[in-house]
């Protein structure tokens, strides 16, 4: 059947006298969902040597991908329970306060998606502002690097799962690629999504926190492995150049302001 279809396509092209390249994608659209904010008292913790004493608001997003083979969610943001805390939740060290203005469950409902509709789930890593709502998606297939799996919340360790040892093509068509990007945590990963109109974008997780960090190759000293973090940045810069992908930095509020937010979507 495939051979017959190929022959028919060739005959049609010949009959038209033109050669047209068509690119098809299993990804239809992506929703960028506001999944909280993190207010840092001193951003120099994330940019060692500069910005000492300067406060910073980190944006925080979840990314809902509509693929022909089902919905996929990347990162789950700050915990929905924080929406009931108007003053947010400050960490024990007092360095950062997390907020959640609107629960993820409500944002999904606005799109017309229920938590049970999510068939594929991956997070960049196991930190609380990225896994805050994983308990909503215990039926989804979880994609996680082997080094990160022991650090993931217990709610999703019973999920159907794919334990990864490196890069992985989620749908087998090159449109949604998990890329191993360790350093911030042992099994940190990023996601490349090939959008039908925007083209390829890389969702950063915490590989870098700010555009400054990406430009100047700067990582926090509290990363799991600083040198590994640097190597990951170098490798991902080469990959972005080779693939022509944009980098969307999750926590950089300024650059994220230009991206449409759910219930709008990007293609």
What's the level 1 CATH class? Alpha Beta
Q: How far is it from the N-terminal to the C-terminal residue, by CA?
A: 31 Å
Describe the largest sheet: 8 strands, mixed
Overall spatial form: globular
Q: Are there runs of 5+ residues with pLDDT below 50, and where?
A: 1-23
Which structural class do the helices and strands define? alpha/beta
The name of the CATH superfamily reads Ribonuclease Z/Hydroxyacylglutathione hydrolase-like
Number of strands: 13
Rg result: 20 Å
Number of domains: 1
CATH architecture: 4-Layer Sandwich
- The overall pLDDT average reads 91
Strand content: 25-35%
Number of helices: 6
Multimerization state: single chain
Topology, element by element:
Layout: H1 2-16, E1 27-40, E2 56-67, E3 70-74, E4 89-90, E5 96-99, H2 104-111, E6 118-122, H3 128-131, E7 141-145, E8 161-164, E9 168-169, E10 176-180, E11 189-195, E12 199-203, H4 211-216, H5 226-243, E13 246-248, H6 253-256
Parallel strand pairs: 3-6, 6-7, 7-8, 12-13
Antiparallel strand pairs: 1-2, 1-5, 2-3, 4-5, 9-10, 10-11, 11-12
Structural write-up:
It is a single chain. With 267 residues, the chain is α/β, with parallel strands linked by helices. It has a single domain (24-256), classed as 4-Layer Sandwich (Metallo-beta-lactamase, Chain A), CATH 3.60.15.10. The protein is built from six helices and 13 strands. The protein has helices spanning 2-16, 104-111, 128-131, 211-216, 226-243, 253-256, and strands at 27-40, 56-67, 70-74, 89-90, 96-99, 118-122, 141-145, 161-164, 168-169, 176-180, 189-195, 199-203, 246-248. The strands form two sheets. The protein has an eight-stranded mixed sheet. A five-stranded mixed sheet has the order 9-10-11-12-13, with no helix packed on it. Strand 2 and strand 3 (70-74) form a beta hairpin. It is globular and about 45 Å long. The two termini are 31 Å apart.
């Amino acid at each position: 059947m495939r051979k017959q279809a190929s022959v028919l396509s060739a005959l049609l092209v010949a009959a038209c006298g033109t050669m047209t390249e068509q690119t098809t994608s299993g990804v239809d659209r992506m929703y960028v969902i506001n999944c909280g904010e993190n207010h840092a008292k001193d951003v120099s913790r994330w940019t060692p040597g500069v910005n000492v004493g300067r406060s910073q608001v980190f944006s925080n997003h979840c990314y809902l991908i509509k693929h022909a083979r089902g919905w996929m969610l990347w990162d789950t943001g700050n915990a929905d329970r924080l929406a009931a805390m108007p003053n947010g939740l400050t960490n024990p060290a007092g360095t950062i306060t997390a907020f959640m203005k609107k629960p993820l469950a409500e944002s999904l409902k606005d799109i017309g998606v229920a938590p049970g509709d999510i068939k594929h789930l991956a997070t960049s890593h196991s930190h609380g502002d990225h896994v805050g709502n994983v308990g909503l998606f215990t039926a989804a297939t979880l994609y996680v690097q082997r080094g990160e799996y022991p650090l993931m919340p217990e709610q999703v360790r019973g999920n159907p799962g794919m334990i990864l040892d490196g890069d992985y093509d989620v749908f087998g068509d090159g449109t949604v690629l998990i890329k191993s990007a360790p350093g911030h945590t042992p099994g940190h990963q990023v996601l490349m999504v090939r959008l039908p109109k925007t083209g390829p974008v890389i969702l950063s997780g915490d590989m870098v926190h700010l555009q400054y960090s990406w430009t100047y190759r700067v990582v926090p000293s509290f990363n799991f492995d600083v040198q590994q973090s640097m190597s990951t940045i170098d490798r991902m810069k080469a990959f972005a150049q080779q693939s022509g992908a944009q980098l969307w930095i999750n926590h950089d509020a300024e650059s994220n302001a230009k991206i449409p937010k759910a219930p709008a979507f990007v293609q």
